[in-house]
Amino acid sequence: RSVPLLAAANLLFFCLEFILAIEARSASLFADSIAFLEGASVSVLLSSGRNWSMPGREAFARFSRTIILIPTCFLFWMIAANYYGAAIPSAAPLAATGAVLLLTNIACLAMCRHGKFPHLAGSLSDVRNHAILNAAVVLAAFLTWISGTMWPDALVALGILCVNASAAEHIWLA
Predict the structure, then answer these.
(1) HSE of 19 in the Cβ direction (CA atoms, 13 Å)?
(2) Rounded to whole angstroms, how far apart are CA atoms 126 and 117?
(3) Cβ neighbours around 19 below 10 Å, total
(4) What is the pLDDT of residue 116?
(5) Higher-confidence position of 5 and 92
């Protein structure tokens, strides 16, 4: 029962982080938001996909992979737009969003380790990885503020993209 709720929460968090990324002109927040799409897709496959035929699961996996790749392409557009427009991401919303997401992931880790949400125990490494990525976003905000350039945010975005590069493969294999 909680898996469809998890899918809805992932979609909601994607939308929120996506909007904040656009407002802050942050490539790293944009890259991080893509992970929520992966989570929503996997949740849909886990909840209702079990009743689908193999061709149906494969079709949904292809659709999900495409949905994830589209914002990935826009990530490169955002980096280029910031570079050519000489735009610097707003450090305050970048740091605040990264910190809230980091605290959320730490809370999830603590709850999973104390026996709450046992169905999420298999994804502890994903939650831990996202916590590390969110810490990198907070660091990027600080370095962006100190340096006055877009490069810390862009480099963290590319790092997040590398970490999340297997998202489409995970969905394909789910």
Answers:
(1) 5
(2) 15
(3) 12
(4) 63
(5) 92
Rounded CA separation 148/152 (Å): 9
Residue 83 amino acid letter: Y
The encoded tokens of residue 99 equal 């910190």
**pTM assigned to the model:** 0.80
Q: Looking at residues 109-127, what average pLDDT do you find?
A: 67
Query: 131 with 105: CB under 8 angstroms?
Result: yes
List Cβ neighbours of 38 (8 Å cut-off, separation of 6 or more).
68, 164, 167, 170, 171
- Tokens coding 149: 């350039």
Q: Which residue type is seen at 124?
A: L
Query: Residue 158 and residue 59: Cα distance in Å, rounded?
Result: 29
d(Cα 28, Cα 25) in Å, to the nearest integer?
Answer: 9
Q: At residue 126, does pLDDT exceed 70? A: yes
The per-residue b/e assignment along 92-105, b for 16 or more CB within 10 angstroms, e otherwise, is ebbbebbeebbeeb
